[in-house]
Write a structure and sequence with these properties.
Protein name: Two component transcriptional regulator, LytTR family
Keywords: Phosphoprotein
Number of strands: 15
Distance between the termini: 60 Å
Order of helices and strands: EHEHEHEHEHHEEEEEHEEEEEH
InterPro entries: CheY-like_superfamily, LytR-like, LytTR_DNA-bd_dom, Sig_transdc_resp-reg_receiver
GO molecular function, one term: phosphorelay response regulator activity
Number of domains: 2
Shape: elongated
CATH class of the largest domain: Alpha Beta
CATH architecture of the largest domain: 3-Layer(aba) Sandwich
Helix content: 25-40%
Length: 249
């Protein structure tokens, strides 16, 4: 059994999650439900749960502020949230899990399974990546956590040359020659890296513009990357690419 605390200021949302967990995740033992973030700080410190289901949007303290108070964090965390693109991008960047409200039972089971089946003890690094996105002033975090088949790998963003789509997976091509297969779509990766100098140049490719060595003309054209790879450019993305490559024009 894994001990868990639910933190959500919406009573009905918290109770709905309790019901879903009892029905779909029998290995999760809910030790407390907190409808107040300040109360949650005390309860989590007392009970020391292994897992916390944490709402992001709460009065007085939001989910990220609560984590900062509890740092260093010793529990796994699954966020629950209504759609918030900036928050979701930050969570993805750190390879932590989130559930959109209303919570889907299959998504819940998958998130719990990922947490309980973790292969690498990288929780503290993940939390540092996440919280760095919400500190003032907000620096652009230059590390990213990638869930691979072997566990989580944390790399420098500027070590990524380009990413290619493979169905529901993304292949990361790194400067040292490594190729990492990540269980995220290219669209998700594009959203995560939009603060950095990356551009989707084709439905199958996302490139680090700092690693482009040459643009070859054509209907859409192609890019020669720093490792010698040739990347096709779609006709619809050609104009945007050329603007990005020639920012002064």
């Amino acid at each position: 059994m894994i001990s868990a605390v639910i933190v959500d200021d919406e009573h009905y949302a918290a109770q709905a999650l309790v019901t879903l967990l009892k029905k779909n995740c029998p290995d999760v033992n809910i030790t407390a439900v907190c409808n107040n973030a300040k109360e949650a700080v005390k309860i989590i410190r007392e009970l020391q749960p292994q897992l916390v289901f944490l709402d992001i949007e709460m009065p007085y303290l939001n989910g990220f502020e609560l984590l900062e108070i509890l740092a260093p964090v010793s529990f796994e965390c699954i966020f629950t949230t209504s759609y918030d693109q900036y928050a979701i991008r930050a969570i993805r960047f750190s390879a932590l899990d989130y559930l959109l409200k209303p919570v889907d039972p299959e998504d819940l089971k998958a998130a719990v399974n990922r947490v309980t089946g973790k292969k690498s003890p990288s929780l503290q690094q993940q939390m540092e990546l996440l919280l760095s996105k919400f500190q003032q002033p907000r620096p652009v975090e230059n590390r990213i956590a990638l869930p691979t088949l072997e566990g989580l790998q944390i790399i420098q963003v500027d070590a990524i040359l380009y990413c290619s789509s493979s169905s529901n997976y993304t292949i990361f091509n790194l400067a040292d020659g490594q190729k990492l297969i990540i269980s995220r779509t290219l669209k998700e990766i594009e959203e995560m890296l939009e603060e950095h100098r990356f551009l989707r140049v084709h439905h199958s490719y996302l490139v680090n513009l700092n690693e482009v060595r040459k643009y070859n003309r054509g209907e859409g054209g192609s890019l020669q990357m720093s490792d010698g790879a040739s990347i096709d450019v779609s006709r619809s993305r050609k104009e945007m690419l050329l603007k990005k490559l020639q920012p002064g024009k």
